[in-house]
Amino acid sequence: MAKNVAPDSTRRSEKSRRAIYDAALALVGEVGYPKTTIEGIAARAGVGKQTIYRWWSSKAEVLMEAFLDLGEQAGGESYAIPDTGDLAADLKAVLRATVDELKDPRFEVPSRALAAEGVVNEELGRKFVEKLLEPSLQLYVARLRSAQQAGDVRPEIDPRIALELFVSPLAQRWLQYSGPISYEYTDTLVDYALYGLAPR
Amino acid sequence: MAKNVAPDSTRRSEKSRRAIYDAALALVGEVGYPKTTIEGIAARAGVGKQTIYRWWSSKAEVLMEAFLDLGEQAGGESYAIPDTGDLAADLKAVLRATVDELKDPRFEVPSRALAAEGVVNEELGRKFVEKLLEPSLQLYVARLRSAQQAGDVRPEIDPRIALELFVSPLAQRWLQYSGPISYEYTDTLVDYALYGLAPR
Amino acid sequence: MAKNVAPDSTRRSEKSRRAIYDAALALVGEVGYPKTTIEGIAARAGVGKQTIYRWWSSKAEVLMEAFLDLGEQAGGESYAIPDTGDLAADLKAVLRATVDELKDPRFEVPSRALAAEGVVNEELGRKFVEKLLEPSLQLYVARLRSAQQAGDVRPEIDPRIALELFVSPLAQRWLQYSGPISYEYTDTLVDYALYGLAPR
Amino acid sequence: MAKNVAPDSTRRSEKSRRAIYDAALALVGEVGYPKTTIEGIAARAGVGKQTIYRWWSSKAEVLMEAFLDLGEQAGGESYAIPDTGDLAADLKAVLRATVDELKDPRFEVPSRALAAEGVVNEELGRKFVEKLLEPSLQLYVARLRSAQQAGDVRPEIDPRIALELFVSPLAQRWLQYSGPISYEYTDTLVDYALYGLAPR
DNA sequence: TTCTAACCGAGACGGTACGTCCGGTCTTCAA
DNA sequence: TTGAAGACCGGACGTACCGTCTCGGTTAGAA
């Protein structure tokens, strides 16, 4: 029967793709992820359902690409981490910016939706991490390596693990509503992580 | 006409409730959360749909209670955190046990399902935290307070925040597939958290 | 997994059935059979699609039953064939009435639709004949038998075949648009059939 | 802007036309008329959909022309009606041949499909009659006129109507499955029609 | 002989309806 | 009065085709 032929992407309609991204993000923002339906996206985008099914295999995938696309066009290369020489101050500044972003509804609803889907759908979760999460984390890795050269962080520390000490707590509180989020909180995280819990 | 009267819980069928819990957990384990349906639970439990709708308002709630019930009958009061006087060793031991639990499929699928639902459904998320997550975390709070009295942790440290330095990274790696999980990893987390990243 | 259980017809909603019949007949009359859809019937009847699929297996079947039902409630026992003793006059009268009915749009559209479907769908065709066509034809059989006893029709004639000489031509002209239909035409058919083509 | 220009038939691809006819007839024979789709015909014929839409306006039209074409190339001018001088024998012979043809599946499926479509689609129905049915019937007209000149049929009889007495019953039994078809049956029809039902 | 206009295969597109599945409500009957 | 059973309305699912619309490519006849 061989009908599972891959579609010809050179003939893909750019206009439709954009319309689908826009509709998907708008709907997720307006009615939430679970009430966002493929039918709804298609209708809002003025597109046939088949045009969605032809290029994506689930609404999670649509939303993921829409979100990536949003980041690409809007963010440029997102925001780098400053390197003023004062590690604690630099980290606190970035985390404060992250706090703001996490509370911005423009990003919050689709991020949550994707994160939630990723929890339950391993493939999507890994793609989410690879495409969105890890690139951001690598910025911390770079900053921590720089701090190691400056002697501000012990050389035997693995930066990829180290960054989790202050990033993951914030992430968890946000994702799971397991605690309030504030500048004070993130400042505290940085201090604890840099200087440890034990007496010095 | 008023039909929205709360059902009389004294006449509730205990057998049905157990059957529903069992069916819900079994289905989530077998086909995953999204393919678990209320109809499916009802059929498997040999129960009418109305019996589910009468006592719960969503499949997330059913699963949540089923999971709580599982914990209650099985875990007793879960496992406490040992207090041998060696804080680092105690924390490493508990986190190693947690690693094992996170990899046990009996717990993994429903936990993930609930966590994911909680990400996107704030009400459920808060209940999840309150009923399942926070009680566990309080065990760490207690252990850290004890360590403060023993002088192993600086007195100005807030234990509720401190525990996140080693608990949240593990939680995030597990939830979001953002990194591998191992005894080595959790041991490292404890060391970093206790002694900080900065040179001592 | 054994979901093909027959529905329980004692609990069937009479109101829905009637609404579906009405909607089906109305739609066929308004937009024609090919543009009548199950979704359209369901929407017009204010009924879920599943309620149609639960009780019928195709739109042809729905329409068939709707039409039968129409006949039952409206027609009583349809119209009998008069027996005045004058066979030719009686047949001519009935055929004239049939001509009028065939031209009545209230009956024409659904009849055509069913007949057409029956041409191509043997099962439905046979049901159509059994439930609608044959009972009418049997009235002619009875009248012809009476004529045989009166000596107006030769005794060796098979009435079931004989009636086709004047009924089938009319049916064919109507069904296939193969010729005009008029009182004159049907009168002629009766004369030809009774007295034959050959010189007497 | 005007794009509704009639296509230039001198540049038409004969190969495509033949392939479309073949595919249409093959598909109707294999899966039946309703499951025969334009897309299916195009795919089977190795032809773009537009090539079909350019030259025909519906699948009924395609099939009609395919069928006409089949008749032309295969049948020659179909079969004439013999004129041996014995009218009854001649008619019986032709009707017996018709019985055989009606039971030949090579003709049956597309004929039924066209007839059914014609029942419900007046335009197509009339074309069907004009192109296929009426030419055949005219052969009977000719034979009956000859019989009138020979004195075997009363002169005031209208041959176009007369032929329906034996042709239409057969047609109806076939089309509507309203009765069995056999040589005996058609022989009887001829006898009844020629000599009438009334006592001579 | 080159240009250009059309047909052609292919298939993406906006749509409509399909037949299925399930959500959540309501009704019936047995215990 | 609870509970099992399941019919009901509604609505999304993912698929199949519809008829329209590009997109190269090929294949004439006109320049």
From TrEMBL, chains A, B, C, D:
<dbReference type="Pfam" id="PF16859">
    <property type="entry name" value="TetR_C_11"/>
</dbReference>
<dbReference type="InterPro" id="IPR009057">
    <property type="entry name" value="Homeodomain-like_sf"/>
</dbReference>
<keyword id="KW-0804">Transcription</keyword>
<dbReference type="InterPro" id="IPR001647">
    <property type="entry name" value="HTH_TetR"/>
</dbReference>
<protein>
    <submittedName>
        <fullName>TetR/AcrR family transcriptional regulator</fullName>
    </submittedName>
</protein>
<keyword id="KW-0805">Transcription regulation</keyword>
<dbReference type="InterPro" id="IPR011075">
    <property type="entry name" value="TetR_C"/>
</dbReference>
<feature type="domain" description="HTH tetR-type">
    <location>
        <begin position="14"/>
        <end position="74"/>
    </location>
</feature>
<dbReference type="InterPro" id="IPR036271">
    <property type="entry name" value="Tet_transcr_reg_TetR-rel_C_sf"/>
</dbReference>
<keyword id="KW-0238">DNA-binding</keyword>
<feature type="DNA-binding region" description="H-T-H motif">
    <location>
        <begin position="37"/>
        <end position="56"/>
    </location>
</feature>
<dbReference type="InterPro" id="IPR050109">
    <property type="entry name" value="HTH-type_TetR-like_transc_reg"/>
</dbReference>
<dbReference type="Pfam" id="PF00440">
    <property type="entry name" value="TetR_N"/>
</dbReference>
